[in-house]
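seq:
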Amino acid sequence: MRRTSGRRTGRLLLLILCGILIGSILGHILSLFIDHPILTHTIQFGMEDPITLNLTAFTVVLGFSIKINFGTVIGIIIGLFLYFRS
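struct:
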C-alpha cells in the first residue's frame, strides 16, 4: 500500500508558503503606488520582544512574529486554489 499523504502535505505547505511570500511582496509594492487603507493596513501577530536565554556558554534567542496584509491573504487563497486544482 502506497502512502501519498506526506507528499500532499509538503506540496500544500510549499504552495501556501510561496503564496505568502509572493502575496506579501506584491501587497507591499501595491501599497507604495495606491494609498488605500486596505493595502496599507498591516496586522502583526507574535511577540514584541524576543526572549533571550543566556547560558554563559551560548545564548538562545526565541522570537516569532508574522505580518499579514491584504496581499498575504490573497496569496494564501491563490496557493490553496492551486493545491486543490492540481
